[in-house]
Amino acid sequence: MLSGLLIGAMALGSAAVHMEVLGVHAVGEAPEPCYLVEMVIHAAPSDLDLGAFSQGPLAGIPAQAPWLETFLDRRGERRILDPFAGPAPHEVRLAFFLHYVDLSRPLGSPYGPVMLPPPTPRPRRLAFITYREPD
Predict the structure, then answer these.
(1) Is the pTM value of this prediction over 0.70?
(2) Whole-number Å distance between alpha carbons of 102 and 78
(3) 124 phi and psi, to 5 degrees?
(4) CA-angle at 78, arms to 134 and 54, nearest 5°
(5) Cα separation of 124 and 58, whole Å?
(6) Side-chain half-sphere of 132: how many Cα atoms within 13 Å?
(7) Contact predicate 118/37, CB 8 Å
(8) Secondary structure of 9-63 as H, E, C letters
């Protein structure tokens, strides 16, 4: 059973893109407020633009977009290089850092607004994803 939250959907061609947020996890090592967001995008297009996911602007803070995106295997245990290998439709699991998150507001996406669930502790399986400050 998936504990994720269905957060957005949009039909592209013959497949409907829909997303699930699997978790939102506080990043204690970040010098500014930051969360690690894990999600699955079902029927993801091969031209997926993660820069089009954003939240903001928020009270004088510019719009925030994903940082250090990591594509994951189907179980969310390992990094993969090409989530679009093989025939379409693609199921893309990924995690990314997002700064200055307002959990009461949706994350904008090309597939509609994405509501974020309450934060939970980061699962041990995601410990290999390390935070680095933006340049």
Answers:
(1) yes
(2) 28
(3) -60, -30
(4) 40
(5) 31
(6) 8
(7) no
(8) EEEECCEEEEEEEEEEEECCCCCCCEEEEEEEEEEECCCCCHHHCEECCECCECC
39 and 24 Cβ atoms separated by less than 8 Å? no
Cα distance between residue 19 and residue 8, in whole Å: 6
Q: Answer for the pair 46, 88: CB distance below 8 angstroms, yes or no.
A: yes
Per-10-residue mean pLDDT, the chain, length 135 = 40 69 96 95 89 83 91 95 82 94 90 92 97 89
> CA nearest 48: which of 21, 23, 84, 3?
84
DSSP 101: -
Integer Cα distance of 89 and 42 in angstroms: 8
According to DSSP, the residues that pair with 40 across neighbouring strands are 20, 93
Question: pLDDT for 69-106, tens place per residue?
Answer: 999 999 999 999 888 887 777 899 999 999 999 999 99
